[in-house]
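job 3f2a | input accepted
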Amino acid sequence: MIVRVLAAFALLFATVPAQADTLIDNVNGVTIDEQGRVQTFAALVFGEDGRIKSVHSRKDKLPKTQYRVDGKGRTMIPGLIDAHLHVMGLGFASLTLDLSGTRSLAEAQAKIAAYAAANPDRAWIVGGGWNQEIWGLRDAAGRGRFPTAAELDAVAGGRPVWLQRIDGHAGWASSAALTAAGVTAATKDPAGGRIERMAGGKPAGVLVDTAQALVERVVPAPRASDRDLAFDAAQRLLIARGITAVADMGTTIEDWQAFRRAGDVGRLQLRIMSYAAGVEAMSLIGGSAPGPWLYDDRLRLGGVKLYLDGALGSRGAWLKEPYADDPGNRGLAQMDEIRLRNLMSRAAMDGFQIAVHAIGDRANAAALDSIEELALTYKGDRRWRIEHAQVVAPVDLARFGKLGVIASMQPIHQVSDRTMAEARLATSGVNGSARLTGAYAWRSIAAGGAKLAFGSDAPVEVPDPFAGMAAALTREDAAGQPFGGWQPQERVTREAALAAYTSDAAYAGFAESRFGRLAPGLWADFVLIDVDPMLVAPAALRQAQVSETWIGGRKVFVAGREPQAQTGR
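job 3f2a | predicted structure (569 res):
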């Protein structure tokens, strides 16, 4: 009797396998297929496990499911992927002093003074986001300059202050901070770094690239609880913008532990493709090999990020010829090519994916040279990455595709940096015009067969993929300038822009079999928005509104509400 009853129950459940399936219909569905083409659809079904079961056109007879969601005619696209940002940096930027919106030194000083007054118990004032190019700072000779410690002292009330430049490649210190760090006229510039100095060698207040470590070592470290708050803040910001997955570029062991804590208690919603902050962090986090996907494909350490140079804004990008606005300065190499290849070899030996930060044309050439040499030894599907690839010598553009290098680029940088890039790069010398031709050269790099993976570099820029797409399509800023686009030959198609924020960004992180498209077997990560990115004018695309964000078949954001709490499985 018991056997017959159990058999009856088994038969019953076997006949209703889709009882918890969910159908979402009445949508204008847009995704990228396996061949990189745009595919449209009107409905999809996902199972209780959060994976897509089927995708349907308007002509299809829709299956019966237990649950149905009316898409209300909105456009459904895959969850967007930011292929290069700094998760914890974004979170801390939202919790500390943020100068990213300031338009002048005076405005920044007023904001610092107000923050100091509102936080009298903080031993240090920390934050960032400043940009001397926007402030228009000039010295007595009319040349661009950095802010000084004295200008910080005037509003800091004698407290130590440490504020990073918006690109993270320079820091602004008060006199008290310099004293606490023991940075004096006798302190030598470290390799790959520079201390800005006054007459006589006294530190002026700004430290560039590796020199930042001189002060950072004495800045009080955030507590674990601070990191948890910062992660939650970053996750909320990203999900609200329709971003369901990111490549975290430069994960420290402390960052990794914050991600793990969130995953362990069911608060990890975002999918994080993690790239360790150097070989040491790679070994601490991953050991001798890339780790498995954790928390239903929400977290994995698969690679390592290596810094080869600095940034254009702080004149640390490594150039083949001197800066147009700083003759004699070719930027700062963070390491020589021998060390770069040794570190790349160390990571490749254990199977880690390698992402090299290279902004200047000399740095990009060195990174490509190293990849070309190492590829002779380390075979297989390596998916070498170059992060930023902002200024590439025209002779090197086709090498990305030839070597199978993924160009991880940030379209919004071109919009933000245009006038600064012209000042830094445009010269009457042999390579002056060529440097601008190879700047932010998305289309030329893709034309050589390379894949593009687009991101924001947040908190350097706002993590807004729709603004990034609009910039990629037009090479114009939000005001439509310059009319027709800057170096317009480098504009990309709508299909390429969407792929670079979805399927190709997933491919760049070895995640294309998990997410990045809307297709059977992949996670049901999608966004409902109010415009069709394949049809709407770029200006309207910039203003796209996210109605809902879903990750793994669960609604995690609804416009006008707080993001939904994740519950562990």
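job 3f2a | The mean pLDDT is 93.
job 3f2a | closed
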